[in-house]
């Protein structure tokens, strides 16, 4: 099985296992609290119905009014400032859900706006992340030069450390500001910053939703938008170093396999006979039924005369060897062949001759003058 397929199956198994473990842990941590809260709310509902002597239908109406009125307490959500905030959450895929379009035109435009805006935002943040990594590498190289390091090049580990530090500083600073303006605890502010910058966007905690902050606090609105955009750029830099590097491993493996296949194809040697000579030429050897007839064929003629024991014979290609000619000598064993010593008076004297390895056969058969 290819390495890419094994990696994909491994990722699927690990992801499913991770989901199962997460579900089990969340069940342990949150299910009991959810049950207690539900019991407390049901008790309050019954107490209100008894106290004011209203029906359950009237209580449902009151509940709906309260839920629908809650977003409007933050001020107008669809003036230019609030609309810009909403457009930012769409483009960055945060999607708090604190304000949603109610008209058909607004919903239709949101879909078309997201189709173009989301890829545009991803490309922009990815580009910013690359520039940020480049700037970080330059700073790391300068610092190493000042400290007289031998290797001044910025490694991936150095960049990861820098980007991680920037992410921690950004979340910590943003949490301090949101804790002051929103009145949240510092831990809740850190939670909000993390959920926002990772584009999870649950919507349980949303900034700019108190005291009509969208219209009365323009400096706070500007800070929140800059924090979101700059923080997402930091996250994009982290993704560029971590996630995208791992994702491109399959592509690198594919290119490596293609390169190896191309290299193997270039080193392939096609045989038209049985033997490849040491100098790269092709030598064809055919032995008869009784070992008394042999024919040799090379790219150049071995013998210029018309000897009875030497015939040029064309043979169809039989197989392909994907090895260099210099690396197959171990496949050519020693053999004992019955040869005929031809004399000048045309008399034939048969005797057994020990034949050297086939790589040396061309040296045994020269011009008839040498015989």
Cα gyration radius (Å): 41 Å
SSE topology string: HHHHHHHHHHEEEEEEE
Query: What amount of the residues lies in strands?
Result: 5-15%
The profile of the biggest β sheet is: 3 strands, antiparallel
Mean pLDDT: 76
Number-wise, the strands total 7
Overall geometry comes to globular
Total helices: the number is 10
Structural class: mainly alpha
In CATH, the topology of the domain at 75-262 is named Helix Hairpins
Low-confidence segments, given as residue ranges, are: 270-275, 286-304, 308-313, 321-329, 331-371
Helix content: 55-70%
Spatial strand arrangement across the major sheet? 2-3-4
TL;DR?
With 371 residues, the protein is mainly alpha-helical. It is built from ten helices and seven strands. Among the domains are: 1-53; 75-262, Orthogonal Bundle (Helix Hairpins), CATH 1.10.287.
Structural account:
This protein is mostly helical. Among the domains are: 1-53; 75-262, Helix Hairpins (Orthogonal Bundle). Helices cover 56% and strands 9% of the residues. It contains ten helices and seven strands. The strands form three sheets. A three-stranded antiparallel beta sheet has the order 2-3-4, with no helix packed on it. Strands 1-5 form a two-stranded antiparallel ribbon. The longest helix has 50 residues, at 3-52. The two termini are 58 Å apart. 14% of the residues are buried. The model is unreliable at 270-275, 286-304, 308-313, 321-329 and 331-371 (pLDDT under 50).
């Amino acid at each position: 099985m290819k390495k890419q397929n094994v990696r994909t199956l491994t990722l699927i198994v690990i992801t499913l296992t991770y989901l199962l473990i997460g579900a089990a842990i969340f069940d342990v941590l949150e299910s009991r609290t959810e049950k207690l809260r539900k019991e407390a709310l049901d008790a309050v509902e019954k107490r209100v119905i008894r106290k004011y002597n209203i029906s359950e239908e009237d209580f449902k109406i009151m509940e709906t009014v309260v839920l629908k009125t809650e977003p409007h307490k933050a001020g107008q959500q669809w003036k230019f400032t609030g609309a810009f905030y909403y457009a930012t959450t769409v483009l960055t895929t945060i999607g708090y859900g604190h304000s949603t379009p109610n008209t058909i035109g607004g919903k239709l435009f949101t879909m078309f706006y997201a189709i173009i805006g989301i890829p545009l935002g991803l490309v922009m943040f990815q580009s910013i992340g690359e520039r940020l990594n480049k700037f970080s590498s330059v700073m790391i190289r300068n610092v190493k030069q000042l400290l007289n390091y031998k290797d001044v090049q910025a490694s991936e580990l150095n960049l990861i450390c820098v980007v991680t530090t920037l992410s921690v500083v950004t979340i910590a600073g943003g949490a301090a500001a949101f804790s002051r303006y929103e009145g949240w605890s510092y831990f809740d502010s850190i939670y909000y910053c993390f959920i926002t910058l990772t584009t999870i966007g649950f919507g349980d905690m949303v900034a700019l939703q108190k005291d009509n902050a969208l219209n009365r606090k323009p400096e706070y609105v500007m800070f929140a938008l800059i924090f979101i955009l700059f923080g997402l750029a930091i996250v994009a830099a982290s993704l560029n170093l971590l996630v995208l590097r791992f994702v491109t491993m399959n592509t690198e493996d594919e290119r490596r396999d293609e390169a190896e296949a191309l290299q193997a194809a270039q080193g392939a040697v096609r045989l038209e006979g049985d033997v490849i000579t040491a100098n790269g030429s092709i030598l064809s050897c055919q032995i008869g039924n009784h070992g008394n007839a042999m024919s040799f064929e090379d790219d150049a003629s071995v013998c210029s005369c018309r000897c009875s024991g030497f015939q040029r014979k064309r043979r169809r290609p039989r197989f392909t060897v994907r090895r260099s000619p210099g690396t197959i000598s171990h496949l050519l064993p020693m053999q004992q062949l019955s040869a005929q010593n031809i004399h000048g008076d045309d008399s034939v004297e048969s005797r057994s001759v020990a034949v050297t390895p086939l790589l040396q056969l061309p040296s045994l058969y020269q011009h008839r003058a040498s015989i």
